[in-house]
Design a protein that fits this description.
2 helices; about 45% strand
């Protein structure tokens, strides 16, 4: 999944020191990919209130929906893309020669580095349900050679009534084989109905949870009394009598830092995504499908994509590449992590 908006807003992030535990609901916005009849996704990062969780800087959640995904070749710089499916199959092709079908429980990880292009499509109309995420690369590694990884088997933590798949990073002594460039974690947690588990966390990481199916009581999280602003956001989460919050598919629950564990109880069979990482201390600009550091750099990436001078070609896709939108009239400048 990628940003196909033709009028993308510049997003500038500035890392900050850990702020301690929190329980903050970040409600996403609906974005239609590929035109008026395209597939709808819910984008919870970047959010109007918080730009990043560790180095995680982009989350698109979609489905379950019967649809055809068809994302033409498009460019990326300065990031890694993470594709994770709950249901369906998607074919990935890229400009370094990769062609890989991804299925639920498998990881597609593409490192853009200096420049890469790729396409994604479903081979037929089918039920699609999944998540696309981006990870910002640090200054020291953001121009590495582009490459692609597919991991069919990932480590799991077996606990009574649940399973935890470590997608990226390390959790509870299990380490993903996927290559990362900043300290972070990504894991899918699947719980039987009524199951209660405790997940170990790193206190120096900030964390967030995204509901995929079902409903889960996050027993370690409490929010302030709901405000009118919260009601206007319409977040699909609620407090639970002072014992935590209920998380259902929809918003991202930001948990802050300083936690060494998280206790979850499933109201019914449920799946959720745990994301975390060291707070990303570098300033970044996100625009369209690029992550850069200055307006001039982003403009240069756009020019290279338009003229076909840096991003290679994607073989096998039947159709034209995605044209770049116009740059904003006002130069993109840092504005801080929060609006």
């Amino acid at each position: 999944m990628s940003n196909l908006e033709q009028d993308p807003q510049a997003t500038v992030s500035v890392g900050t020191a850990p702020e301690g535990p929190a329980a903050e609901f970040l409600t996403g916005r609906d974005v239609v990919l590929g035109g008026p009849r395209g597939m709808k996704v819910t984008r919870t990062l970047p959010n109007r209130d918080r730009r990043m969780v560790g180095a995680w800087c982009f989350i698109d959640y979609y489905g379950p929906e019967t649809a055809v995904m068809r994302l033409p070749p498009h460019p990326h710089t300065g990031l890694q893309t993470v594709s994770w499916l709950v249901q369906g199959e998607i074919l990935h092709r890229d400009s370094v020669g990769s062609e890989q079908l991804i299925k639920p429980g498998q990881l597609n990880l593409m490192t853009a580095g200096r420049a890469i292009s790729h396409s994604e499509e479903s081979l037929s109309e089918t039920v699609l349900h999944g998540i696309q995420l981006w990870i910002a690369l640090p200054e020291s590694q953001r121009k590495v050679a582009p490459h692609f990884e597919h991991h069919q088997a990932l480590p799991e933590l077996g606990v009574p009534g649940a399973s935890v798949t470590v997608i990226l990073g390390e959790l509870g002594g299990a380490t993903s084989p996927a290559r990362i460039y900043t300290p972070l974690v990504g894991a899918e947690i699947s719980l039987d109905g009524g199951a209660e588990i405790t997940v170990p966390l790193r206190p120096d990481f900030e964390h967030a949870l995204l509901g995929l199916t079902g409903a889960v009581d996050v027993l370690d999280a409490e929010t302030e009394q709901e405000t009118e602003t919260d009601k206007e956001k319409g977040a699909a989460a609620e407090t639970d009598g002072g014992e935590g919050v209920v998380l259902e598919p929809g918003p991202l629950l930001y948990l802050g830092s300083g936690r060494d564990h998280l206790t979850l109880r499933a109201r019914r069979p449920s799946r959720l995504l745990l994301l975390g990482g060291e707070p990303f201390e570098e300033e970044i600009i996100m625009w369209w499908n690029f992550v850069g550091r200055t307006h001039e750099e982003i403009a240069g990436y756009r020019e290279e994509w338009t003229t076909g001078t840096a991003f290679g070609t994607v073989d096998g896709f039947d159709g034209a590449s995605l044209p770049a939108p116009a740059l904003p009239v006002t130069p993109m400048r840092p504005r801080g992590r929060h609006r």
